[in-house]
Amino acid sequence: MARNLHIPTRMCIQCRERMAQNVLIRLQCKDKMIQTFDGVGRSLYVCKTCIENPKLVKHLMGRCKSGKDSLNNISNILKELIADDR
Prior knowledge:
The structure is a single chain. By secondary structure, this protein is an alpha+beta fold. It has one domain. 29% of the residues lie in helices and 22% in strands. The strands form 2 sheets. The chain has a 3-stranded antiparallel sheet with strand order 4-3-5. Helix 1 (55-64) packs across helix 2. It is elongated. The termini are far apart.
């Protein structure tokens, strides 16, 4: 008898599409800074197509309630994620 395996789904915060959790990029807001998920606390998900969207930086800044000083931080993290994906 075949076993029905559950695949968790999550939603991208930018495009709001639901996808399998393992294909999304997991980030978190810690001390008003966006960073990759470290395994503790709440997180948010971004799909690989939205990671290159210029509007994502502004969305993340609002989501994390961070000021303009974190703009470079968010941009650098997204650039690293794009480079790792290729």
